[in-house]
């Protein structure tokens, strides 16, 4: 009886660890490679520009779907001054493009459910409403609203959840 | 951040070399045109003189052709203007749009400056829905409609539709009645500062962009000619 209890405890520990621990470095690298391929294949990255970075930011939960938020920064380096082209890229679970949102001085920060919080005021197609909170809907519509920076739903750093990339 | 001494030394050459003023009249003419067309613009033309020095400068081989570096092979600004994206069609003059459509060379310095300013003002502007007629109207949704195509079809904006029809951002269905007013997107403010040029024009590609513009502004202030 004691052994069964120990086994259950051990199993719970393993399952719990798997759910909360980050993926291994190898997993992350493999996933990042898949990401680059997906971005290139769908022409999300611009031909001729140089890719500075394509980072996973967070996962949106839109209805029952998980959408990945990717931050891309590219440079046009053949100008005398490098000019950057930045995008918030939304991909579905299979890394298929859902939406690309060019941005300038803003940047994506974190997700909570179907909401993506950004640094700075963002307007879709540079049109009002402007705000730091983008709410995604299944039909592709995006609502923009403002959240007071002091009221951002941020978890204490020590409790920050980690996500597995798969 | 400290600016590269070689770069600042190059900019300092402007103190003795009048060719750094070559584009002054072009910039002034363009800024004046924007001030006439868009009453929102209050910026001093010299901030763009400083920006053009930052983008190229009289020592650059590009100075007499592409002073604003618009139209380089991988430049992302020209496609935005050509496709009228980001509301650039609400900023550009009719002449610039006509020249773009006709395929005018981006190696014409005047045109390059016109395009550079068009892109700068487009990126620095904020755009809002402006109600053109206060009368409330009604539209009946048909199959295949989306909020964006309805707005275009009936001469209003997505914001007006969403404001007057709460919940329509999430779901609309055929035969649903939507209230609306005739409205259009218009630029409502344009603020030009070195930091905003770094953020919105340069996209933070060069982290020293704003400091470079400020340095150029300092040198321009010292010019005695």
At a glance:
The complex is a heterodimer of chains A (166) and B (225). With 166 residues, chain A is an alpha+beta fold.
Any key phrases for this structure?
heterodimer; A: alpha+beta; four-stranded antiparallel β-sheet; 22% helix; B: 225 residues; Membrane-bound Lytic Murein Transglycosylase D, Chain A; elongated
Blueprint (SSEs and pairs):
The complex is a heterodimer of chains A (166) and B (225).
Chain A: H1 2-20, H2 25-41, E1 50-62, E2 65-76, E3 83-91, E4 97-103, E5 107-112, E6 115-122, E7 131-136, E8 142-145
Antiparallel strand pairs in A: 1-2, 2-3, 3-4, 5-6, 6-7, 7-8
Chain B: H1 5-12, H2 24-37, H3 46-55, H4 77-82, H5 94-101, H6 109-124, E1 125-131, E2 137-140, H7 147-154, H8 158-164, E3 177-180, E4 183-190, H9 194-201, H10 209-222
Antiparallel strand pairs in B: 1-4, 2-3
Walk me through the structure.
The complex is a heterodimer of chains A (166) and B (225). Helices cover 22% and strands 39% of the residues of chain A. Chain A is an alpha+beta fold and 166 residues long. A four-stranded antiparallel sheet of chain A has the order 1-2-3-4, with helices on one face. A four-stranded antiparallel sheet of chain A has the order 5-6-7-8, with no helix packed on it. In chain A, strand 2 and strand 3 (83-91) form a beta hairpin. Chain B folds into two domains: 5-126 and 187-222; 133-181, Roll (Membrane-bound Lytic Murein Transglycosylase D, Chain A). The relative contact order of chain B is 0.16. The chains are: A alpha+beta (166), B mainly alpha (225). Chain A binds chain B through residues 46-49, 75-86, 102, 104-105, 123, 125-130, 137, 139-141, 143, and chain B through 54-57, 60, 62, 69, 72-77, 85-87, 122-123, 125-129, 146-147, 157, 159, 162, 169-171, 185, 188, 196, 198-206, 209, 212.
> How far apart are the first and last residues' alpha carbons of chain A, in Å?
37 Å
Order of strands across the widest beta sheet of chain A? 1-2-3-4
Helical proportion of chain B?
A: 40-55%
Radius of gyration of chain A over all CA atoms, rounded: 19 Å
Shape of chain B: elongated
Q: Give the amount of beta strand of chain B, in percent.
A: 5-15%
The greatest interface here is: A-B, 31 and 45 residues
- Major beta-sheet overview of chain A: 4 strands, antiparallel
Overall structural domain count of chain B: 2
* Poorly predicted sequence stretches spanning 5 or more consecutive residues of chain B: none
By secondary-structure content and strand pairing, the structural class of chain B works out as: mainly alpha
Please provide the ordered H/E string of secondary-structure elements of chain A.
Answer: HHEEEEEEEE
Q: Tell me the number of helical segments of chain B per DSSP (H or I, 4 or more residues long).
A: 10
- How are strands sequenced across the largest beta sheet of chain B? 1-4
Q: Average pLDDT across residues of chain B?
A: 93
